[in-house]
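dumping this here before i forget
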Amino acid sequence: MKFSRYALCSMILAVVGLCSTSHTDAADKDGWMSIFDGKTLKNWDGDSKFWSVEDGCITGRTNDPEDLKHNIFLIWKGDEPGNFELTCQYKIINGNSGIQYRSFVVDEEKHIVGGYQGDLEAGDTYSGILYGEKFRGILALRGQKTEIQDNHKPKVLETFGDTKEIQSKIKKEDWNTYRIVADGFHFTHYINGVKTAECIDSDKEQRRANGVIALQLHRGPAMVVQFKDIKIKHLKKTEKTSLNVAKKKVVLVAGKQSHGYGSHEHKAGCLLLAEALEKSGLPIETEVVTNGWPSDTSVFEGANSIVIYADGGGRHPFNDHIDELNKLTDQGVGIVAIHYGVEVPEGKSGNAFLDWTGGYFEANWSVNPHWDATYDQLPKHSITNGVKPFTINDEWYYHMRFRENMEGVTPILTDLPPKSTLSRPDGAHSGNPYVREAVANGVPQHMAWASERPDGGRGFGFTGGHYHWNWGNDQFRKLVLNSIAWSAHVDVPKGGIPSKSVSVDDLMAHQDYKVPENFNKERIAAMIKEWNQ
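structure:
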């Protein structure tokens, strides 16, 4: 069906609704500053033929495909920020637009800009991608995490989302919330709380440390794009330069004494993992809390991720502190749960774990047998960087309670348990009709999983870790180290988190119980050698 340009313009005018915006002249207590006053284009520069304020919104409008010979921009003159978060609401009717950041002015008179762009459109393909306007082209498509190489081209590191699923969260001809995070040379886009694209720019020759913010009006069909509630928050500068990656803080909470020598060694396990993270050469600092929930909760201040390795169920250290932890996770703090730490009671605790990590051990649904699991097909994910297929015996819990339809959950370790794992009679942890049916039907089970929340926070669940000696397996250990770094938003190297080989003496250190007289050190050493040869 065809419309005259006048009919199309009338339709556009009919659809665009009233805008409302809040305005503050200075940063609020959380550091957010409005950069549009809701009334005028003060501190903005653009062609008044196409840019105006309508109904309290910045409005870009064309009435004919021939109105523009090239893309034009409305440029914010207030600052050229480097590290920041920017958020706004937008509505687009027909056509294409975008939000430029760390960008450069190509032609001031013609209002032409190039640089990083958070793309948005009326169509179904490009909203949320990272595009380089006059600046290397597409840098990350929807659902992709990429790294820009020295050849100026992106390499896909991870596929974290489906473009059609992302598009389903974006409202047509209605208001959507766009969020852009530029932290060092790490850029992340979100629309309506859903991560759409992520990029690490390692192209030292062409990447940009700072630059202008601008709004795009694209040449082509008649269109209207509107923006309101445009706010920016400057991120803290780091120690060496304004664009070095700041150290991420990881707090490891080790539970109380538990099973006896060599099992559920929460303190020794947390100290071993913390030491490996500290010596990895990555921007990570750690604090280890022992004996359960800390008496001084100031340890969590500034945390980027919290790791819990402790006995769970009714004794889980988090049960009485869900509200406190919600305040932290609402700020994007990651949560990693190891072994028994994945089990919490159904209800408030269970719902919290579904939110934080995507899944948990639910009594009378999940089971906890000891068995040899083989992980020979690992998904492409930052957590599996450098991890080779492995087989190991552990108390691998399975049949977890996950979010409905596994929404936002990525399986990391998957295997089909043998029927022998259900040889025990039904019980809260040993078996139930649901898990028996699943295994009988050949449904693969997930023993480790990752999730990412709409607020950017990350979660990881890992059901292994009963036997302390298993930390001597390089693949087992690397996977968990990767997951902790990832949960704290540290970029995991292609080869995974580097760590020295672990000896029996390393594993014997810091355990809660005395070495038993019948302990066979040589057997453990031989086992470690076999794993890692």
